[in-house]
Automatic annotation (TrEMBL):
Converts N-acetylmannosamine-6-phosphate (ManNAc-6-P) to N-acetylglucosamine-6-phosphate (GlcNAc-6-P). It comes from Kribbella sindirgiensis. Belongs to the NanE family. InterPro entries: Aldolase_TIM (IPR013785), NanE (IPR007260), RibuloseP-bd_barrel (IPR011060). Signal peptide: none annotated. CDD domains: NanE. The keyword Isomerase applies. The lineage of its organism: Bacteria, Bacillati, Actinomycetota, Actinomycetes, Propionibacteriales. This is Putative N-acetylmannosamine-6-phosphate 2-epimerase. Keywords: Carbohydrate metabolism, Isomerase. GO terms for molecular function: N-acylglucosamine-6-phosphate 2-epimerase activity.
Length: 230
């Protein structure tokens, strides 16, 4: 039986509310306001990064909260240690997103150790994967759901222009746990395509909550437009 926290996001949109280092929106209070805004818009869940952000968001939303911690930007950097994962649970995460690849983890522990610790603390685990082999490894380690978050970023698959629908379909066909689509989902049509391909839920981040990137898209389009004749 699927846990009720996962059931609450089935077929729904989860919005990733994260700001990058050095950006004006990099503030727990701002991310909490963004989280409230996306829930008001109909999001069935929120994905957030950083302990302070999770602590700020948790009291303000009553939807499923997927939490993670990022350490660096290379290798295993998404909730890389058992301690990081448990900190996310303490901060209020219902589901902890962790690196679900087969790469060595900074604390030297296998993925199964993180999963076991999170389960013992009363939360679930979403394994962010980059390939089918990653996903099979994560399911064997006890992950409750699989995300396509790292597809195209681990060297095993090319970076697709939109979501990696081929990988998504492969995972849905071969796994017995929910598969959550995430990564390069740029518009509602992409999101719907993911659901039609069998995704249990869809996570969208930059296309909704990253105004710098959204503005850059609009500005770039206008910049390349031929000037009007006088």
């Amino acid at each position: 039986m699927i846990d009720s926290r996962l059931v609450s996001i089935e077929g729904r949109l989860v919005v990733s509310c994260q700001a990058y280092p050095g950006e004006p929106m990099r503030s727990p209070a701002i991310m909490a306001a963004v989280a409230q805004s996306v829930v008001a818009g109909g999001a069935g869940g929120v994905r957030a990064q950083g302990i302070e952000d999770l602590e700020a968001i948790r009291p303000l939303v009553d939807v499923c909260l997927i939490g993670l911690v990022k350490r660096g930007a290379d290798g295993v950097f998404i909730t890389p240690t058992v301690t990081d994962a448990l900190d996310c649970v303490t901060a209020g995460a219902d589901i902890v997103a962790v690196d679900g690849t087969r790469r060595d983890r900074p604390d030297g522990q296998p993925l199964a150790a993180t999963v076991a610790a999170v389960h013992a603390a009363g939360a679930l685990v979403m394994a962010d994967c980059g390939s089918l082999d990653d996903a099979l490894y994560s399911v064997a380690a006890g992950a409750d759901c699989i995300g396509t978050t790292l597809a195209g970023y681990t060297g095993e698959r090319p970076i697709t222009r939109g979501p990696d629908l081929d990988l998504l379909k492969e995972l849905v066909a071969q796994l017995t746990v929910p598969v959550i689509a995430e990564g390069r989902i740029r518009n509602p049509d992409d999101a719907l395509a993911c659901l039609n391909a069998g995704a249990y839920a869809v996570v969208v981040g930059s296309a909704i909550t990253h105004p710098t990137r959204i503005t850059r898209t609009f500005a770039g389009q206008l910049t390349h437009h031929a000037p009007r004749k006088k």
